Amino acid sequence: MQAFILAHYDWFKALHLISVISWMAGLLYLPRLFVYHADADKGSELSETLKIMERKLLRFIMNPAMVATWAFGACLLWANWNVFGTQGWLHVKLTMVVLLTGFHHALAKWRKKFVKDENVKTAKFFRRVNEIPTLLMIIIVIMVIVKPF
């Protein structure tokens, strides 16, 4: 399997990057939907429409993209562990990816609160948390491109 991954390394890297971009789009968009949802009246047409949009975004884009990101990334890492295993930048990057995954799960939890009309968080809260994936992405990109250590 390792030989197959190395022989098709650019394909695995491209699929990993496509998955990351799709996942990041959802991580940036879902909190923005929550901003609008937090201001919508419970049971209103807008609230019900946002519930549908949030569910579809999470289930059909974000969840598969997150799984694909992890799967293709794990393949790349496994195939090159002897090269990357001891590099500090990779450990920082992986830590940020774990934090992004935790953020993803927090979004899923908050979505469930909206579904039950039990959300108590404000639009201002969701505006602020909307910055978290951007900050983590910046760190990840710097680690991968610059490799500062």
Structural features, described:
- This protein has helices at residues 2-7, 9-39, 45-79, 81-84, 88-115, 123-129, 132-146.
- With 149 residues, it is mainly α.
- It has one domain (2-146).
**How many E-type strands?**
0
Arithmetic mean pLDDT: 97
Kindly name the structural category: mainly alpha
What is the strand content? under 5%
Shape: elongated
Considering DSSP H and I runs of 4 or more, what fraction of the residues is helical?
over 70%
Task: Spell out the blueprint of helices and strands.
Layout lengths: L1 H6 L1 H31 L5 H35 L1 H4 L3 H28 L7 H7 L2 H15 L3
Key features?
elongated; 0% strand; 149 residues; 7 helices; 85% helix
Put the structure in a nutshell.
This protein is mostly helical. It has helices at 2-7, 9-39, 45-79, 81-84, 88-115, 123-129, 132-146. Helix 2 (9-39) packs antiparallel against helix 3 (45-79), helix 2 (9-39) runs parallel beside helix 5 (88-115) and helix 5 runs antiparallel to helix 7.
